[in-house]
Structure formats: C-alpha cells, structure tokens
Amino acid sequence: MTQLIATIAAVWFASILIGMPLFASMGLAAFAFVHFAGLSDSIVPQKMAQAMNSFPIVAAPLFILMGNILGAAKITDRIVAFASALIGWLRGGYAHASILASMIFAGMVGSAVADAAGSGAIEIRSMRRAGYKPETAAAITAAAATIGPIIPPSLPMVIYGVTADVSIGRLFLAGVVPGVLMGLSLMAMVAVVARRQGFARQKFQGFRRIGRTFLDGFFALMAPVLLLGGMFSGAFTPTEAAAVATLYALVLGLYVYRTLEWRQIPELMVDAAETMGLVAALVMVAGALGWCMSISRVPQTLSPLIVATISSPIVFLLACNLILLVVGCFMEALAAMLLLIPIMVPAAHSFGVDPVQFGLIMIFNLILGTIHPPIGVVLFVVSRIAGISFEAMSRAILPWLVPLLVVLLAITIWPPLTTALPNLLMGK
C-alpha cells in the first residue's frame, strides 16, 4: 500500500507541475488510486457525488449569490458612510472606519475576496483623499478583508463543517470573538501608524450625522443581527440562513434602496454559479481523494506518527500553524482545507484539541495566505482597485500581518477565545 500511495503522489505532483488545474490533478490521482488498486473506476464518480450530497453545502452558492447582490446594490457605500461618521474623527479615522466597515460587511458575506471587492474601492478612495499613501490605504483594506471569513457567516466554515463533520452553528459562534479581536488589533496598528505618518485628525461631524447615516443604512446594518439572531434563536438553521440572507439582500436592493434592477439578477446568478462551480469541483474531487486516503489508512498511519513525534498539544498546534501558513502562501484556502482536513483533524483529535478551535485555527491560517505573496488572491484584487503594482502591494502588507498573527497566536494558546461562546449558547 505504501508503494501505491507513493505512485499516486507522483502522478498527482507530476500533473500539477505540467500545469493541470488543481481539481483535475486531484481527480486524476483518485482515478489512478482505484485503477492501480484493482478497484472499479466507477467508485470515483460515486464518491464525488456523495461529497455533494450534503444539506449544509447548499449554503455555499447562496452566500456567494448574496455577496454578489450586496456588491451590485452598492449597499457597502451606506455601511462605509456610517462607519466614517461613527469613528472617522479619530486620528487615522478613515482607516479605522475602513476596518469597522469590513467587520460589519463580514457579518453579511463571509468572504475575504467579496469584502475586498465590495467595499475596497470606496474605502481606498476615502483614505487617498485624506492624504494616505496608496500603498498604505491598499494594505489596510486588504488586511481588514481577512475578517470576512472569520466573523459569521463564513463560506470556509461551511466547507470545514461539512468535511470535518463539525457543527456549523458552533463554528459560526466561535468566529465572533477572534473576528472582533482582529478588528481591534488592526485598529491598534492604525493608531501607531497614524502617529508615525502624521495622519490628520478629522473634524467630528456631530451626532446628527451619525444618526442620519445610521438611519440611511439601518436595514443593511441589521443584516448581521437578522442572520445571527435567527440562527441562534432557532428560527432557522445556518444553512437556511443563507437563503434568508439572499432574500433579504434582494429585498434591500430591489425595493428598499432601489439600487438594484431586475435585469441585473441573471448576470449575478451566472457569476455565482461560475464561482460555485469551482468550489463544487474541488469539494467533489477532494471527497473522492479523501476516500482513497481513508481506505489506504493514510490518516490512521500519519496521526500516530505525529502524536509520537510531538508530545504537547500546544507544540502540535504551533507546528500546524507553521505548516498551514506556508501552505496558504501557495494554495487556495478551500483547496488546502479539503486536502489537509483528513490528515490534520484526526491528529488534533488525538491531542484532545477541540475540533471547533482547530477549525478556526485552520481557517485563520489559510485566510492569511490570501494577503501574503506569492499567491495572495486578495492582494491581486486590492492592487487592481488601488492602481498599484502587485510588488508594491506585497511590501506594504507585511507590517499589517503582525497584529493578525498576534490574534492567531492568542486563539492557539487560549482555547476559550474560540470555544467559550459556542459552549455558553449551545452547551458543551
């Protein structure tokens, strides 16, 4: 069996090196396994179909569609306006407002790329008008976008919950405290940079302005309250929340704010279907490859080796952080999760690590990869919006990784940061 696994790994890496898409190389590796093992090739499509036969996975295309609707309806403009009125008077106020807007927007879309694309343009424009360097404005926007997949709802949490058989509701709750800490840590960084670079302090626009922008964006600001309140009151499940959120976004765009037109809906649905097609392909081939790894007892073999090599749960989690950070720099987050969950989750279970805490650690690490070169998909998006080179963007983001890494270290060392809220509201 060891020789068989080595052969499959060689096929997989060879297909990647010749430029084959990741999902295709994973599917080819699965077919190679069943062929060389003397099994029927029909097993692979069966396992691929089983991977998609999951009720929670229905939430993924709906959350993607919701993000597209919110962006097309320009609802983010109202959120940014409220955040600017609320804390824009602080030194570095536009940067603080950008981070706060991302935290609010995170409670609506659950995607770093959607956050950066949806609110990035107006945030960067506001900061540049206030005299911020283009690279600084872009780096703050990119760093704040990573909050999107941590504060619920979150597409990576849905994928992790489905793949690792963990409660999505508990994962959503577990992301609240780390998400808030990410925002606060970035604001602390802004306070330091604002003094060093001499950012001007904006004039306080008055409580009337705060009230006016709050009322103007009230229904948009209530979206996270509606979603979380409905889920944790038992009115609907996390999966059903995606449908509720999509309908709510449609109502806001079409009838409340009237910034969305019916003729735009087909295009938004096609865009969501294209994005989901990529996600679905990865989930399906990862399900088949995961089955191959399972019957070859790769996780069962590697987990005891990891446990025997590492004696402390903290050392194990720190080692996982290093591995995931490196992987996140070279591989798309969802693909990396689907590959590593079958190996890392059983090992974490052996150390007694809560699967919810480990899920947050895994997602956090891989999301940081979206703002770190050489892949850095969020860096590509933001650099295009800001009109700067990818190289300049890559240099500017490095200091802003520091506060995020501090939060990552905190949730790694102190489990209650991720487990206390789910245990409080849903029981142990």
Can you put this structure into words, describing what you see?
With about 425 residues, the chain is mainly α. The chain has one domain. It is about 80% helix and about 0% strand. It has 22 helices and no strands. The protein is globular, with a radius of gyration of 22 Å. The two termini are about 40 Å apart.
Whole-number average pLDDT?
A: 79
Helix-strand topology string: HHHHHHHHHHHHHHHHHHHHHH
Rg over CA atoms, rounded to whole Å, is 22 Å
Q: Residue share in helices? A: over 70%
| C-alpha geometry | globular
Helix- and strand-based class?
mainly alpha
Largest sheet: none
Low-confidence stretches: none
Number of strands: 0
Terminal Cα span: 39 Å
Strand content of the residues, in percent? under 5%
User: What's the domain count?
Assistant: 1
* Number of helical elements: 22
In short:
The protein is mainly α and 428 residues long. It is 79% helix and 0% strand.
Main attributes of the structure:
428 residues; mainly alpha; 22 helices; transmembrane helix; transport; DctM
